[in-house]
Amino acid sequence: MIAAKICLLAGWQVSKPKIIGIKSILAIPYLWENFSAMRYEAINPNLFRLNRKRFARLMKPKSIAIFHSNDQMPRNGDQYYPFRQNSDLFYLSGLDQPEAVVVLFPDCVKDGFQEVAFIKKSNAHIAVWEGHKYTKEEATAISGIEKVYWLDDMDDVLHELILLANRIYLNSNENDRYKSDVLSRDIRYAKGIQQKYPTHKYHRAQPILKKLAMIKSETEIELLQQACDITDNAFRRVLSFTRPGVREYEVEAEIIHEFIRSGANGHGYPPIIAAGANSCILHYDVNDQVCKEGDVLLMDFGAEYANYSADLSRTIPVSGRFTKRQRAVYNAVLKVMKEAITMLVPGTTLEDYHKEVGKLMESELLALKLITKHDIEKQDPKWPAYKKYFMHGTSHHLGLDVHDLCDRYAPIQAGMVFTCEPGIYIPDEGFGIRLEDDILVTDEGPFNLMANIPIEVEEIEEIMNTAETGVIS
Ligand code: GLY
Ligand code: MN
Ligand code: MN
């Protein structure tokens, strides 16, 4: 119960799952704890019950909401990319299997149909080729949804429910940075249903989901902490492993080894393992170059545990010692980061926070003689002088996705989790430094979920120089 301790320490009151559904848990033939088909430990279904209840409270009367799983994305030939559940369906149900559908109809007049799930029915062929699929009882145990049907029944069951509703909430990916030519299952479904039921009123589920997902519950903080702890172990492994001559992908291999052995799904996003000048490429992920003596190694990676992602950046010296200049730039970034973290408190807006971080960075860049007072006087206010060396944002919401669902104009509130990731990139000097931790906002101040991960120059150098490099337990 790490998060319980965190919240107690921080005095942050998380809304606890109330008594909803406790009786219904006891009514099922076995407890959710017994279900362990996934890599991660079973999650208390009260998390999903509460998420549905919160969503339902924000729906209009006489409305039904329909949520779909992600597609199994085709790769090539007869292959698919590994399945990753739709974050919104997972948030509302914990169901982590392709094709699951969740339906919410809070004021449904038909008794027992306020929450319904549909899952794919298994058969002997599927059992032989793919293995176990959820039974209805398992779907109930995981999600807390009592009414579970096979997908084959979905059209008939849904038809009856839709005719009892006036409004239909549909989901789609409304991440404001998402662009894709691929039509998601949600979009394909939205087109079909609007043709079939053209006289209903349609609503977007995402504004509600954004509002809810920004504030993490105690269970979610625990899962994020677990993702951060696995990421910590992977970083320590890298500190012991890195030496001149290794390839960036060998470092990547150490990371994924630690992730997988710890029950993580893998990476929450493509890892950046960037040595030397590659550290100035913000989205570098080729990871195929040699780490050389004198280089820095910038790494940005995070374990995904139970679909919750950590997001870490650390920059280390390949040889085990920073040069004087690298150390000066590193400490400038670290200073900005430490001050920025103190500003992640309720009431600030992300916009004001970013302006303040910009000022901190400006003063560090002046001290490093990377910009001059004159540069600042003549700067374009829309693209200030500091942006030449620090051109990305400092913080984003983190949760089920690395760039999590959010309303970026909402004020910062207790329960939000942000990254804090300042950087200075100097292509002319052949290196960049980025540091990134994950921070829980509480009413008592910021709580660093990555507080245990080495970050001070002396710590990093000491571990690198005392470890028997290249030898991993
Ligand atoms: N790793 C992605 C990011 O830091 O935003
Ligand atoms: Mn990152
Ligand atoms: Mn980040």
What does this structure look like?
With 473 residues, the chain is an alpha+beta fold. It folds into 2 domains: 194 residues, Creatine Amidinohydrolase, Chain A, domain 1 (3-Layer(aba) Sandwich), CATH 3.40.350.10; 249 residues, Creatinase/methionine aminopeptidase superfamily (Creatine Amidinohydrolase), CATH 3.90.230. Helix content is 36%, strand content 15%. The protein has 15 helices and 19 strands. The longest helix has 24 residues. The protein is globular and about 70 Å long. The N terminus is likely disordered.
Concise overview:
The protein has 473 residues and is an alpha+beta fold. It has 15 helices and 19 strands. The chain binds glycine and manganese (II) ion (MN) (2 copies).
Spatial sequence of strands, sheet with the most strands: 6-5-4-1-7-8
User: What proportion strand?
Assistant: 15-25%
Helix content: 25-40%
The number of distinct structural domains comes to: 2
Largest sheet report: 6 strands, mixed
Q: Which small-molecule species are bound to the chains here? A: glycine, manganese (II) ion
**Rg for CA atoms:** 24 Å
Could you say what the CATH architecture of the largest domain is?
A: Alpha-Beta Complex
What's the pLDDT, averaged over the residues? 92
Category by helix and strand content? alpha+beta
Helix count, DSSP H or I runs of 4 or more residues: 15
Shape: globular
Write the layout of secondary structure elements.
Elements: H1 2-10, H2 22-27, H3 46-57, E1 63-68, E2 74-76, E3 79-80, H4 87-93, E4 101-104, E5 115-119, H5 124-129, H6 136-143, E6 147-150, H7 154-164, E7 167-170, H8 185-196, E8 201-204, H9 206-213, H10 218-241, H11 248-261, E9 266-267, E10 272-275, E11 296-301, E12 303-305, E13 308-309, E14 312-317, H12 324-342, H13 350-367, H14 373-377, E15 417-420, E16 423-426, E17 431-434, E18 437-440, E19 447-448, H15 457-466
Parallel strand pairs: 1-7, 5-6, 7-8
Antiparallel strand pairs: 1-4, 2-3, 4-5, 9-12, 10-11, 11-14, 12-13, 15-18, 16-17, 18-19
The site of glycine has 8 residues, from loops.
